[in-house]
Specification:
By secondary structure, the chain is an all-alpha fold. Helices cover 83% and strands 0% of the residues. It has ten helices and no strands. The longest helix is centred in the last third of the chain and has 58 residues, at 229-286. The chain crosses the membrane at residues 86-109, 115-134, 259-281. Residues 150-275 form the Type II secretion system protein GspF domain.
């Protein structure tokens, strides 16, 4: 009887392994020749991501995929993963969070459905929070580097170069970051035959930053009216530099307000404990 159970169990494991291999072989190969490299963590999860993305992509609506693709573009991840792969990461995050919570409940001998549901919600929305953080970080890097690139563009235009040559000089000498990548796309679009105004408008749509929208509008207005590009760029550069100083000043003024909570919760109680300990010990010994 025991031998029969072992044989059945072995056959079940073999059948399960063969089924998993056949299911995974149906997934098409992932060509990442022109894609951005994956992080070490994503490399480990990528086979599962491809598997889930292949089998759930048919059940996702086109509107949802377009919204996710737009968010990936704003976060700079559109050349790393597709919308289907991003949704697969959300599913994997949910399963991992639920499994971890269930294991902890088993170790504590207290399985709670509420904890499992909360962990499922946390795992499902964690990639969304991460994506929003990446978008804010990327937009912050673009705003920070914009005055430097405007200075390079202004000097190049005033030296006699056209906009394509000025962009090439700015990209060659400017700091690395997402703004350099976006200007490289603008150069590529202009060389492909797209108009200068449309190339810059496409960049503004990809970035969704107010400062870049203002720059694109000023360049389009200068092109229509025949105004000097060098003068327009110098005004934009000075304005962006003033705004950067104002943002730094605003953050400096907000720092004392943000420090109130950690002071009250963490620092003041410890300080009072240190001051009150010798006084309390003195009273105890006097009694």
């Amino acid at each position: 009887m025991v031998n029969l159970i072992i044989c059945v169990f072995t056959l079940s494991v073999v059948f399960l392994a063969v089924s998993c291999i056949r299911i995974y072989r149906r997934v098409p190969a992932d060509n990442r020749e022109f894609m951005d490299p994956l992080s070490p963590g994503l490399k480990l999860l990528w086979p599962l991501v491809r598997l889930f993305a292949f089998y759930i992509s048919e059940n996702l609506s086109v509107d949802y995929l377009e919204r996710v693709a737009k968010k990936l573009q704003l976060s700079g991840l559109s050349y790393m993963m597709t919308a289907e792969q991003y949704f697969a990461i959300r599913i994997i995050s949910t399963l991992f969070s639920v499994s971890l919570t269930f294991l902890c409940c088993l170790l504590l001998d207290n399985i709670s459905i509420n904890y499992i549901l909360l962990s499922a919600l946390f795992g499902y929305f964690l990639p969304v929070l991460t994506l929003n953080d990446l978008r804010k970080k990327r937009q912050g890097q673009i705003i920070k580097a914009l005055p430097v690139y405007l200075d390079y563009l202004t000097m190049s235009i005033e030296a006699g170069l056209n906009m394509a040559g000025a962009l090439s000089q700015a990209v060659e000498r400017g700091p690395a970051g997402p703004l350099r990548i976006e200007f490289e796309k603008v150069i590529r679009d202009m060389r492909a035959g797209m108009s200068r105004a449309q190339s810059f408008r496409n960049m503004a749509n990809r970035i969704q930053v107010t400062e870049v929208n203002s720059l694109v509008s000023a360049l389009a207005q200068a092109e229509k009216t025949g105004a000097s590009l060098g003068h327009t760029l110098r005004i934009q550069s000075d304005q962006r530099r003033v705004e950067r100083f104002q943002r730094a000043e605003k953050k400096a003024l907000e720092a004392p307000v943000k420090l109130v909570f950690p002071l009250i919760i963490f620092i003041f109680p410890v300080t009072f404990m240190i001051l009150a300990f010798p006084i309390a010990m003195k009273f105890m010994y006097e009694l």
